[in-house]
Amino acid sequence: MLAGRVRTGDGAVKLLLATRSRHKAREVRRILAVEGPGCCTIVTLDDAGIPWTRAEEGLEPHGTFEENAASKARHFARLSRLVTVSDDSGLEVDALDGRPGVRTKRFAPPGRYPGLAQDDANNRHLVECLDGLPPSARAARYVCVACVVDPARGAFASFRGEAPGRILTTARGTGGFGYDPLFFDPELGRSYAELTPAEKDARSHRGRAFRALAAALRTQV
Known about the structure:
Elements: E1 13-17, H1 22-35, E2 40-44, H2 65-80, E3 83-93, H3 118-129, E4 139-150, E5 155-167, E6 183-185, E7 190-191, H4 197-203, H5 205-218
Parallel strand pairs: 1-2, 1-3
Antiparallel strand pairs: 3-4, 4-5, 5-6, 6-7
Helix pairs in contact: 1-5, 4-5
């Protein structure tokens, strides 16, 4: 269902990864290189020559990761006519009733932390929102939903991955991106920013979602 009509010379699916994030593209390529060798060839929006337009700013208006991921995948599949995958990922914190959720990338209020990059502002805002809470009240999870659209067949599928953890009071580690320095893995006793890339991929929300995608693609090749 997902293999589509567009393949490379070796029979692999040519899969458009609909993201402008170099961090996300690097992670997905790394995961699929391990989990799905030979099943797909990843191209990014830049690789495919798809320029940024203002329309991209309105592709994530929905209240769920599934809806936002599907919106992006369908948009770029229409533009490219390639089998397209897009994910929407985020952080859900129990003490914040599931926030920041779909607002993960823009959690910090605009102008609240002048001079800070968006990731740093988000992390500071999260720490402030949870100030004073003990470790037992800091449960959280990373969520990733990857949606695939095959425009040649009108086919659609989605894959969800979750990774449990808790939020630290101070950042730890220099790897990863986003909230990784604050997201603590209790089993390993380290933040995601302290994990090696291979350790993170094996446990992360994105790793789980894209491994499921790779398994589906392998059945089509």
